[in-house]
Fold:
Amino acid sequence: MTSDRDDAADALPIGAPAGMPPEGEIDLGASAPAWLGATAKLIRPLCVGALMAIPTIGAASVGITAIFDRATALAMAEASTRFLVGIPTDIVALIGFLAGGYTVARSAEKIVGVIRR
Structure:
């Protein structure tokens, strides 16, 4: 859509500012193999999606089962709880640390951008 008005704002430029990689590009440094950045760019959203989907699907399956058989749903919930309690604390801390680090790094990328050297 175009405007014939003289006071119309200029169009916003498409793409990253000079010296910045395009949105979503991951700069791993000059020593990293070329395929690694593309692989990380592909895998990262899949991992985040899986981390969100797994508990949601698990909870939904227990809820749907509860509609048909309350005892089985309670057994599923008990088994899930025992599984989670059985995970070593160090592993839980590692997962939390990685998730927190990812969140901070991704937020910094969106706010500041990835700086190429």
In short: The mean pLDDT is 76. Residues 88-117 form one domain. The chain has two domains: 33-86, 88-117.
